[in-house]
Each structure stands twice: as structure tokens, then as C-alpha cells.
């Protein structure tokens, strides 16, 4: 049984709740689709946990911003959070984050952070049969949109496990997916949002940066959606 997680974004209480549920389900393997970094202040705690578990991880765009010391081109909020993480992340954890692959393929499965045209920053808000038609694998997993979805597209299956640390689909619960016997199961788990909210407040962030976690939206309150055209 394989657990697929994505878009943790430094939200340790959400990650811990997901990991506890993964252990309860007795998943033998875990893969992270990227974006351990960005947004929330507990980056070291998240990486420490993932290092202890030897979790396979892919490079996300926020991870890349942190590793290469470059800004996000479209979000001042993201950049303020990344600047904070640059100050606190340990050198060992930064190196661990840098030693990350862009994609994995195995057993008719293809996994990437964003999309298959741009591994780091392609938003798959529109899904259709044609996008996957020329790809060899049967099962496709990516994150980046923070929207949990499972779609049958011709003879291909696409899954976004959703976001562990910042869901944007109107459901505040931490999201992940499980792959078992060629079946994909979408999962959600409650966690104590107050814990990360308090950590963010103590780190000097006002509620604008974390109040969205109570509603399952982007910072600022917007809900995102994925449209499926079969």
C-alpha cells in the first residue's frame, strides 16, 4: 500500500496528523509530490519527520525557490514566508531538500509535482483525455493546485492527492491519497489548526497568513477548482 502526499508547506500539525493516519492504514511506502517548503513556519519539523521516515520526495516550486534562493514570481505572501524559512532552516535540512528528484516512474505510474510540460509550475486546472493520451503510463499523480481530485480520462487515471498543509478546495482537512491493488482512494484527516496558527502568530505573522486554514482556501480566501473534460 502506497500513500501519496503533497504540498505540506511547513504545516507540521497537518503533516503529523496525516502521518498518523498513514500509519493507522499500514501503508508500507510514502511518496511526497513536493512543496515541503513555503507558507508556514515549521519547515524544520516537517523535514525532520520526513528524514526520519526516509520518505521519497519530489521537488516542488516552493522547494526550488528555497533551495536556489529565488523569489516566487507572483506572490508577495509566499515570499514573506519563504524569507522566514530561509532564516530558520538548518543547513542539513536545506541540503536534504536540494537532493530531491523532479519525477518518478514505476509500475505504470508517473509522478511529478506540477505537470508533465513543466514539472515545477504547471497548474492542471483543466483536465482532458488529450493531455495524457500520448503518455505511456496508466496512473498519473501530481500536486501543486492544492485541490484533491480523481479522474478517469480514457484509459488513463489522474489523481491529485490534495494538499496536506494548505487545502484550497473548500475542505480544511489535510488531504492525501492511497494507492493499493491498482485502486486510488482519496483521504482527508482533521488536525488542530490552532497549533500552526499559534506558531505563525508567535513567528510574527498576522492572521492573514493562516486564517485561510480554517476554511480550506488560498491565503486571502479564494477557493480553487479543477475542471474535468472527458
Poorly predicted runs are none
Q: How big is the Rg?
A: 16 Å
Average of the residue pLDDT scores: 97
Q: How much helix, percentage-wise, in residues?
A: 25-40%
Residue share in β-strands: 15-25%
- Whole-Å distance between the termini? 28 Å
Please tell me about this protein's structure.
The protein has 230 residues and is α/β, with parallel strands linked by helices. It has seven helices and twelve strands. The protein has helices at 12-25, 43-52, 61-68, 76-88, 91-98, 129-133, 193-202; strands at 2-5, 29-32, 56-57, 103-106, 109-112, 126-128, 139-141, 149-153, 156-160, 174-180, 183-189, 227-229. The strands form three sheets. The protein has a five-stranded mixed beta sheet. Helix 2 links the parallel strand 2 and strand 3 (56-57). Helix 3 packs across helix 5. It is globular, with a radius of gyration of 16 Å. It starts with a strand and ends with a strand. The relative contact order is 0.19. The mean pLDDT is 97.
Amino acid at each position: 500500500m502506497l500513500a501519496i502526499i503533497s504540498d505540506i508547506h511547513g504545516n507540521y500539525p497537518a503533516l503529523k496528523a496525516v502521518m498518523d493516519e498513514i500509519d493507522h492504514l499500514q501503508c508500507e511506502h510514502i511518496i511526497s509530490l513536493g512543496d515541503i517548503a513555503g507558507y508556514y513556519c515549521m519547515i524544520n519539523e516537517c523535514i525532520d519527520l520526513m528524514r526520519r521516515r526516509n520518505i521519497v520526495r519530489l521537488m516542488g516550486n516552493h522547494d526550488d525557490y528555497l533551495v536556489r534562493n529565488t523569489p516566487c514570481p507572483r506572490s508577495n505572501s509566499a515570499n514573506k514566508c519563504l524569507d522566514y524559512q530561509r532564516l530558520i532552516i538548518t543547513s542539513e535540512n536545506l541540503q536534504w531538500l536540494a537532493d530531491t528528484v523532479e519525477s518518478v516512474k514505476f509500475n505504470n505510474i508517473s509522478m511529478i509535482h506540477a505537470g508533465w510540460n513543466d514539472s515545477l509550475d504547471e497548474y492542471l486546472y483543466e483536465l482532458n483525455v488529450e493531455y495524457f493520451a500520448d503518455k505511456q503510463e496508466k496512473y498519473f499523480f501530481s500536486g501543486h493546485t492544492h485541490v484533491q481530485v480523481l479522474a478517469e480520462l480514457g484509459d488513463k487515471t489522474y489523481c491529485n492527492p490534495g494538499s496536506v498543509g494548505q487545502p484550497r478546495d473548500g475542505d480544511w482537512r489535510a488531504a492525501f491519497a492511497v494507492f493499493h491493488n491498482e485502486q486510488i482512494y482519496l483521504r482527508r484527516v482533521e488536525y488542530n489548526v490552532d497549533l500552526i496558527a499559534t506558531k505563525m502568530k508567535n513567528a510574527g505573522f498576522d492572521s492573514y497568513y493562516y486564517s485561510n486554514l480554517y476554511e480550506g482556501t488560498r491565503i486571502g480566501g479564494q477557493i480553487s477548482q479543477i475542471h474535468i473534460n472527458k
